[in-house]
Design brief:
The structure is a single chain. The protein is an all-alpha fold. It has one domain. Helices cover about 70% and strands about 0% of the residues. The protein is built from three helices and no strands. Helix 1 runs antiparallel to helix 2 and helix 2 runs antiparallel to helix 3. The protein is globular, with a radius of gyration of 11 Å. The relative contact order is 0.19.
């Protein structure tokens, strides 16, 4: 199943940044990274919730 990402530029940059961080070290906490990008890219609550769900699903499907 495909997840539809919100259309803002900030959310795209945030996903790219988090993905890069997780490629460097897969043991990093995705929730801590999300908390970081919410401030870094000035994301809305809805965007933060999207990221949390996106990475939670990824971990479930990825194992």
């Amino acid at each position: 199943m495909t997840t539809v990402m919100p259309g803002g530029e900030a959310i795209h940059k945030a996903v790219k940044w988090i993905s890069g961080e997780l490629q460097e070290d897969a043991n990093k906490s995705s929730q801590k990274l999300i908390n970081n990008v919410v401030l870094r890219f000035d994301l809305s609550l809805k965007e933060a919730e999207f990221l949390t769900e996106f990475y939670r699903k990824g971990k479930i499907e990825g194992h």
